[in-house]
Specification:
Layout (H helix, E strand, L loop, with lengths): L9 E6 L14 H17 L4 H8 L1 E12 L8 E11 L3 E10 L4 E14 L10 H7 L4
Antiparallel strand pairs: 1-3, 2-5, 3-4, 4-5
Length: 142
């Protein structure tokens, strides 16, 4: 369960562009994963963690290990969406996140996913414990 009593920890507005859609002007299903990736990146940035700096200076990568996605309602060209990130659990080298994509105009839940992200060593590409200073911020499910 989340620490925020129904409120996501982080949200990012995303506009649906023509390039995000199929011939029917519906968001192409894989683009929801891109929207979620952007939200995770901005969430980490908002906490003071830049992915390129973690890779360069600490040899850390955060990679998606598992994604379970439910497509519920279509989002359309030019919709303004809200993409949320809500930590819901963690292990030594991984974190579990619930992510949702809402249409802002009517609060319709378009897509939801449960994403498992693993911390990896850049050189060995093997799981590596999330450093405590990072873990305290990103996987604190209070």
């Amino acid at each position: 369960m989340s620490n925020y009593e129904g409120k996501p920890r982080f949200s990012l507005p995303v506009r649906v562009y023509y390039e995000d859609t199929d011939a029917a002007s519906v968001v192409y299903y894989t683009n929801y994963l891109k929207f979620m990736e952007r939200a995770r990146t901005e969430w980490l940035r908002s906490l003071g963690f830049e992915l390129d700096a973690l890779k360069l200076y600490e040899g850390l990568l955060f990679v998606v290990r598992q994604a379970e996605i439910a497509y519920l309602r279509p989002a359309l060209f030019n919709d303004l969406l809200t993409v949320t990130v809500d930590p819901c659990g963690h292990g030594g080298a991984s974190m579990d996140l619930v992510q949702k994509v809402y249409r802002q105009a009517d609060a319709t839940l378009c897509c939801r996913g449960r994403i498992k992200v693993t911390c990896m060593d850049k050189k060995t590409l093997r799981p590596k414990r999330i450093p405590e200073r990072i873990s305290a911020e990103i996987v604190d499910v209070r």
